[in-house]
Structures
1.
Amino acid sequence: MSTAFRVLFAPGFFASSPVHVALAIGGIAALVSGIVGTFTVLRGQSYSGHALADLSVTGGSASFLAGISPLWGFAGTGVLAAGIMDMIGIRRPRGRDLATGIVRGAGLGLAALFLYWGTTSTSTTGAAITILFGSMFTISSGVVPLAAAFGLPALAVIAVLYRPLLLSSVSADLAAARGVSVRLAGLACLIAIALAVSLAAMTVGAILSTALLVGPAAIALRLTSTPGRATLMAALIAVAATWVGIVLAYDSFTWPPSHDGWPVSFFIVALIFLGFLAAQLAGRSRRAAAW
Amino acid sequence: MAATMTSSDHTGQVLAVDGVSVRLAGRPILDDVSFTVGPGEFVGLIGANGAGKTTLLRVILGLQPATAGSVSIVGRPAAHGRGLVGYVPQKIHLDPDMPVRARDLVGLGLDGHRLGIPVPSRRRRELVAEMLDAVDASRFADQRVGNLSGGEQQRVMIAHALISKPRLLLLDEPLANLDIRSAQEIISLLAKITSQQQVSVLISAHEMNPLLPVTDRIVYLAAGRAASGTTSEVIREDVLSRLYGYHVDVLNVHGRVLVVAHAGEGFEILAGDQAAAQSAHPDHLPAGTQQ
């Protein structure tokens, strides 16, 4: 038992403060991503989530240049982009595709510029890797309260608009006929998605952030048939994948090829992907089951 | 039926549409449409695809502003009558991946517009179960709505619309895409349940024949204008010819009513049911009988 424990948790895991910070930030990000992600998938807004993730690269790289936590940039550009996407017309399906495409292209162009400046001024590729793929063990502990401050409003949006969002994802007309302001609810949800993506970007990097947003939700939607259970299950799966990923990444410092650790992002995303495959198989064996 | 009227309605009507005109992008969609629906009345809104049925229902729901005219629901302006109207929108695509069971969707009919996370209560559960039972949907109550057949989905949508005990039920083409048997079942279910709940019904259809046995009155829409009254008052050559603006014939074929216009050398079925339209279409006449 204690041998197994030592194999799983490499020496120094529980005493390491970068690990504590990673567990805290990862836990917050996973909780928010799982819950908001369920509504992202439910509402068919995964593509918007992807665009917001790409755009967070812009803010993240700008923050790096400015010398502040990338979380500010991730969240700032995300929320701004959510507003612009709503203005251009995210409510109509075709308008939505165009709106996201245009905003995404412009943002990524800026990101290319910022990352280039970042790389040439510091003559290191570290910035690009940190922004794009995350670097959880290097986050300063001061970011934890900031992550909580960005996570809470996102969770609040889902809690307050739970039923209107659910109803309008079944049918916007149905919701509007009951007096729901579909546009306002949609904008609030998009901002929540932007905040969740920015937290996920801190955890697994901007490029992989949608994996944490959409993956656990996709697994949960295959395993359960009620919105409430799907939301809770997605949150649990996201937190579990993140924490197990952190444990494995810490263990990997003793692994080949170079004994300096594999990226946390790899483990988290791989765990989510394996979970999805397992859920797919389980779902096939009891399709349309009531649970 | 007059005995069921409440003292609060000024006009005594559940729905009063008065001189409603709608222009969209400069094009007239509805032109001075007036009619009323009394307490407990079952009224068919008949018209070809594109006649303006959906636009009219959206005006009544307060989702589409009228260019001229007014709508009142139990004596109140449409925008304030929302809580009194149940709505079954035109065929909506329900995704099987959506974790929403029949039971959940009916529950959203009760409180889908409310803010906050729903508190599970025995009263709410019982109301939902009763409503599911009333539309004979209990046996698929725990299945995802996306996995149900068209007829089953309509039952769930009707339960969703009726659970809040509205005074008026609006249904937009609920029989479209249903096979004849399911359509008959939905109609008799509607006739039964709405007379039990004493709710007035306005149901739109492009095929009037399945509806005629249960409707008290019909509103016939053509070229944006409306004629209303009992079937024998409206489905007449003089009335409909005036409405269309050119001569039409009303034929009675094996107990089914067809409205037919002369078009060049052939003729066109303007209203009737699909089966009759099929067999009466010149292309379907036996070879050699065509001119």
2.
Amino acid sequence: MGKFGETFLNWEVMAQYAPKIVEGFFVTLQLAAVIVVTGLAAGLAAALVRTLRLRLLNFFIVLAVDVLRALPPLVLIMILYFALPTVGVLLTGFVATWLALSAVLAAFAEEIFWAGILAVPRGQWEAARSTGLTFLQAMNHVVLPQAVRLTIPPLTNRTIAITKGTALGATVAVGEILYQAQTGYSFSYNPSPLTLGALAYLVLFIPVVWFGRWVETRFAWKR
Amino acid sequence: METLVNAFFNLGILRETAPYLWVGFKMSVLLTAVVVPLGIAGGLAVALLSRVRTKALRWLVVAYVDLFRAFPPLVLLMFIAFGLPFTGLDLPAFAAVALAFFLNTSSYYGEIFRAGIESIPRGQFEAARSTGLSGTQTMAYVIVPQATRNVIPDLISNTLEVVKLTSIASVVALPELLYAARQAQSITYNATPIIAAGVIYLVCLWPLVRLLSRFEHRQIVLH
């Protein structure tokens, strides 16, 4: 254990970099929070616009969703951070990561919400409209509540997966956990900061993974 | 408009850097061809192990799956690529990437196969065993083929994510497509290579996205 401990669990190095990791922990939390909020909101908005069935608009929504699902998130971040400045658009690493990951989350969320809305039987629409509800009321009080319930398990899983993408921010100098851990590692030439970073991710994501598992069983469809 | 074309779609630059991108593309294909089958095999093993009678072993498998699903893949990759050499095990970049991918993807594929196996009614086990098949034969010839068929959309979806994920290998300097594009960009001071890399991902993965989108709708609508 001696040499291994000194290498991977070096208390001195860990104590030195722990405050940085804690700082990174809160940056990761912030980044994850803004990504989840904007991504889910934009995804829901796009799915709702799609229900209006305006052909040209829907074409662009589907196109955007497809592109965002086919591109690796890291490529997207790189384009925003390294390619846009060449035409004069400068984004910070935080903004680039935020935009890229919320766009990706929005694309997946749009698909899931849309599939959920389609899954609500037409009869529900017709019944709601014939009781005198307007389109918006029918959507809001009848269709969406049913659709959202269907979408919760896939949406939770996707959101968790994309939230973990915040680590990609380390490649564009966002001071989140991984970046701090990596910086600590290169300064001290000791992997203990990486161990500490890994622990920080476990503290953050183990409960999230368990929550995802619980959601899956809680909303499982009984056949 | 012209500055935009010059900055992002510069044909001269594209011609100049195409050979680099081609080398990177081949590496990405090779990486995919290694990590996807490994991940699927590992996932199947994880799913089968999570059904053994020994409780301790089952717990161990759950711990493995949760642990490696909680780490962002990039964190795992960096930990292995930078940390492992300190243990005296100096893996080449490709092997380090393959190992990190195996730990991560086998957990995800494992969860998918587990759900697939759980979707097979008990009667199938009982019927298979009562015809005289052994436990192993029952699994191999009756349960796993049906389970796999039930989760094909999830398997494709996860495989798409894995292919996209290979782009993070660029962070540990494995010369795959994104790495080649970034190198080409820093040599030419032009963003065309990175845009080209995006287009290559798009062209290769778009058919898969289309296919999946069709699967997903059918799945949620049929519930």
3.
Amino acid sequence: MTQTISQPALAAPQPRLASRRGGLSLRELAMPLALVLICAYFEFRSTKFLGSRNLSFLAIEVSITGVLALGMFLIILPGYIDLSAGSGVGLIGGIAAVLVFQHGWSAPLALLTAAAVSVTIWALMGTIIVKERVPAFIITLGGMAAFRGIHDLVIDDSTIPVTRGSEQNLYSILTTYYLRPAIDLPLVGLVIAAMALASYLRYRRERQAGEGVDGELAFMHTFIAAQLILLFVLICNGYRGVPLSAVVLGATVLVVYILTRHTPYGRYLYAIGGNEEAAIVSGIPVHKVAIATFALMGVIVAITAFLQTAYGGYSTPDLGNTMELDAIAACVIGGTSLKGGRGTVAGVLVGALIMAALLNGMTLLAVAFEIKLIARGIVLVLAVWADVKLGKK
Amino acid sequence: MAPASESRGPVRQAQGGPILATEALVKRFPGVVALKGVSFDLRPGEIHAICGENGAGKSTLIKTLSGIHPAGSYEGTILVDGKPAAFTGPKDAEKLGIAVIYQELALVPEMTAAENIFLGSEPRRFGGLLIDWERVYVEARELLDRFGLGINPMANVRRLGIGHRQLVEIAKALSKKTRVLILDEPTAALTEQEVKILLEIIRDLRRRGISLIYISHKLDEVFAIADRITVLRDGSTVQTLDAAATDKHQVICAMVGREISDLFPRRAGAVGEARLSVRNVSVSDDDGENVLSDISFEARAGEVLGIGGLMGAGRSELLMHIFGAFGRRTAGQVLLNGQPLGPGNTPVQSIRRGLALVSEDRKRFGLVLEQSIGFNLSLSSLGQLTRTGLIDSMREARRNRELFDSLRVRAPGLSTPVGTLSGGNQQKIVIGKALMTLPKVIFLDEPTRGIDVGAKVEVYELINQLTASGYAVVLVSSELPELMGMSDRILMLSEGRVGGLFTRQEATQEKLLAAAMHPAGEAADLVPSQGVFP
């Protein structure tokens, strides 16, 4: 009698949906296309935009925006937000600069100490958010103001260089060191080989799991990514080589990708953002995950702070101002939902590229600071608007 | 037919002609034909039930009748009072007096019951400038008093249980000038007592000349109130039957297209030692109010312990508390496999100790809807599936596939988003997620709510398999036939206390209800009669 039940039930109509792997959606294509258009426009207006020299600088700028955006991505995935990131970048970079320049600490020790301060502050904010139930929006808005103030106190409203005298240290080379072709070419070969292997393993695994996988599409993805990386390296080699900061970005991408795609922690981020109550009942340690995420953001803020401060060479009072705006915009442009639960590392990278390219291009065209600020604000709002529009389809 | 000869107004129609009808309605979605020529008519002052399995086209039919699918998006005709109607949206349907109460409630949680009832149609004063709050609350109280449950119009909806929220929603529809009221599974979340009250209200509406379309999986209710029954299957009308001239068996056969010989296929097996012992447990909620007092029971390996009770008796709260997701324990002890569990245990610890919970509200507490089937299935078990910190995706996919197949989930594959599945298949995913944690004791809180007959029997079969393999199953249900049909022993709760414990053999509907109404001791000599319901 039991079998008599299952048969008609099996014949019941089931919800069908178009295969998600059946090609790229409008949304996935729109942003890379926008990036190409932006680059084409700037190249048209100023022939220097796509030159090796400018692209090398752009690479450094993308690294800075991208690293912070990836941290913001981890924060937004479970449905939080960090408005204090920009001020934090100023403060942490300032602490490291003061330790090096005024107290004569060695650069590695200074960086480590500043990073430890950063992790502590962010872990504390995370703890307050989950234990005391102060919304992330509010506590980081407070942090935005407070960190800016502390930063000004730390550097005494002055300009603090990241080195003493003219010698190089670990701090200053973050954005001035370039990998020479003899190093970067074998490295890029290694990276591409690893990507190809990972892609193949994933394809085989999904085949074995009995999922309908489009092998050609998977190959194309990897192939295009490899081409882009190679192209990037060749262009950089036309100037001084691959900037060290790009390697930092690459490492951050790898870590965040593995965290979000291959660890329980990453799954939990998506689950909390998708449905926090279900996550709690499913046995996810929501509090621990949130605190760990903010602690990670502390690490990211520290890395961004060191890169950004080193890029200018000095810690200045307005350093890092409104950087959280670029990071949030990069996430949203890349398809990360501000409600949490949706987004990809690749998308965030494209978003960071767009934001960095816009800024770089406008600087190249000598657009006034005020206009650049207005443009960034408009792009952020447009990105969220487009996300809402496209998200409905 | 009716001697209503005083036909006022210019509307010339045949006496007793349908107030609302469809002719050869066809509705297509990309890749799916949801309605394949549905013809249906609603006579004035009748209760017309629509039955069919999930996916049969009931929801699509309602959405077409209420203007959510506007004219032009379907083929065929909708007739109101015999005249073709072309709705551009729900407002048009509302103007003609057609109102719908949907399965998914549409209330604002932070507003009071009264504010919700009159949301968008608040009575005004001073020429419409200000809201007449006095009338809002007076009229809301009148509407809510019909339920006889003492729902306070000043209560925040957020603080009401799912059942009471539904009643507020129904009151909201009653507050409007409605000629045709469509109820989509209105009793899915109600207890037997509340269902009876609601059915009485529905009969009262019919007496006042309102025509009703009543959609429910619960055939007992359908037969209790419906004048006619239309059965849909796969988007087509199978039959329209006179309720007086048919029976449940015939309707079920029409719905599934074949015989179902046994609705509750419980196979009791050997019962082992106690897996879960609850001893004199009292629990208070976050506001410090006592919700459960002195609860004791045992769940043993291989048995189904049913827990019943009226709404607000504390059934779900009891399960959620033991699991570690509700309230604070003020007294008593819980033993899981002989070892104390809690107080103060978290869901993480409970799952690790071999306890799993399938919540009554699968969309709220069970699923991450926009994620895939695979994501949801393994969500609680990732700890077992990691190697050196990374998820072993081969093993994960294999385990997911095993459950997907053994639960007979009907979906294209593991990567299908859970939000696109039918209720029955979603429920299987929630149960699968619980099973993957390899529990010893599994709590099933209303596991068949809102799923169709075929899927229900599959859940029952699954319960049989679980007890046969030594699980202790605790089944909470507000449907007495299900509780009596599937439980080996039944614990009735009443206002947060134990109302009685019955074996399968001694349980009768009357005994269970008496225990649900009065905590043990008081109840002993109370024979429930017609007067049980206020």
4.
Amino acid sequence: MPALYTKPAPPSDDKRWKIVETRMRRMGDRPAALIEALHAAQEAFGFLDEPALHYVGDTLGVPHSRVYGVATFYSFFTLKPQGEHTCVVCTGTACYINGAKDIMVGLEKRFGLKPKQTTGDGKVSLLTARCLGACSLAPAVVVDGEARGKVSAGDLIAQLEAM
Amino acid sequence: MSEQPAAARPIRRRVITEEVNEGPVRARAFVCEAASCMSSQAHDVMLRLGEATADAGLTDVVVKRVGCLGLCVAGPLVEIPETGQLFSGVTPDGVGDIVEALKAVKETDERQPQGPFFEKQLRVATENMGRVDPESLEDYIERGGYEALRTVLSDMTSTEVREVITQSGLRGRGGAGYPTGLKWTTVAKAEGKQKYVICNADEGDPGAFMDRSVLESDPFRVLEGMAIAAFAVHATEGYIYCRAEYPLAVARLRSAIRAAQRAGLLGSNIADTSFTFDVQIRLGAGAFVCGEETALIQSVEGKRGTPRPRPPYPAVSGLFGCPTLINNVESFASVPTILRKGADWYSSIGIGKSRGTKVFALAGRIVNTGLVEVPMGMTLREIIFDIGGGIPNGRPFKAVQTGGPSGGCIPAEHLDTPVSYETLIELGSFMGSGGMIVMDDTSCMVDVARYFMDFCRDESCGKCVPCRVGTTQLWMLLDKICSGQADMVDLAQLERLAGVVRRMSLCGLGQGAPNPIFSTLRYFRDEYLAHIVDKRCPAGVCEIEQPAEVMA
């Protein structure tokens, strides 16, 4: 008798799918694993594309509509590929009153970047964080994973231009 | 997680010069390795200091990684606990002074007072911060860790544990202040075979970093508190719901969970008793509303984080429909100390119905940005001026914002109010998770209200109309005021709509969203009027009909 349910195959034979598959299996391939699975996929690939969403949904038995709903609800997940470099500007309260707004205005003037956008040449993506919890460094930014504190718009623009 | 801060990288081994030491330890150097110091090269400082002490032939000296020392503004910090000397802003090349100081430490030295920032604090939930290596179970046990859990498991019944917590007067440290003992009793009495304990580490309030610091500095304490809670409410499974924005906290928690499991302090048959309890971590994904307990449960279940009406409360029907205990990180962190020192000791601290201590994160325009724990009932003035060191550059104090986006701004005339759940609500603010953002005269209060409304409209989950539509409309009205295009009709409309959003919204996010408007209107109505009538911004923040300056 054929099995009622077969696990779907990964969208490609990219090895990184193994990581995603393992993470889901560890949580029993249950629907509750959806957010963890999306985290795993985004960690592995940098963003979530349609095949990834379908694969995760099919494995966990979650309708595609709900997978899409969850992926778009949480601001941490991104459905678009990121630029070569990422620049996260903290917009928490402490950073805000210490000049995060000037940084955002400066970046928009220089690069035409708004939050969640990437420059035309695909070099830099601008993201915002609600609060990095690094309030003593306000205003804080994270450029390619390196946190920097007490930055000015000019310094940051110079750093991004140099990349 | 591609955009992790530097602090997120796997934690390299700590330098333990103990390995080469034969004799007793004469002096120690504690290097702060919490996220804030880590992002200013604290780890390199520790490595260099380890090398430097070895080069200097100091065989009776230990260089140790510890959690947050509290004074985040002066990081990276190094402390010599024997003398109480504190080195701030240390660079990897500037460890020479510390080596000299370590050489000079004598056995007869006594710890000197470190100034009001440290001396005026009373540490309960943060008692081990800056004292233990966050990833060392031995360190934690040496400081009295897991004593409470062992006593609970061997000598107490679950009723007795709940009794102690009830008598201690501990209230939810996440902000609302629901009595913890009462919550535990409700869950314990709820019908259900399976029960869960959830630790809410989704610290979403901008400007608040207490939970992050506790998790990064003393993760075992939270695990012990959760295990005691699980015993008291008969739960066997626990979840820690932590923000993905806190990669270092998550890494240290994972390591702590593994260590506790290996030592038989988590998992089945804890401490050789029949008690079984295990903990898993769930990562948030950047949704502020998930700090609300019903939304958090949805998120742990892998769904969109939308709140649902209560009752039924999670204590009766929570995670997967089972009775669930949800407490905040700081609440759990207070539990082991309360059980070790007794309910009477804890309830002797504090004021009125607010007993014990509270951790605050000081940020904004304040000299000593950092983390402090003070007894309830201390005045705002003591916290901000004595401990916090006042406002930098001699500028005047204008307001302190507490409670995050659901809180309010408290002006100078109320600085002498003792801090407690009740007094803050009377002042139109809110305890919240404990962020205190200090503002000077360069902040425009209308702009601050607009900032928080922008936050709320962005973070509204969209389930109920008053919050989804109301916050956007309120933001548009505030924006109109800030740009000098509003009239008095708009102000009246703002007040009316704010009342509607407060009364009609489903969860705390919407109900609390108008609070910044109400509190700024209450204390700073003149600023609103200046924007509307005089078309000017007293603080010079808002851009009103001054295109020439905008270009500058």
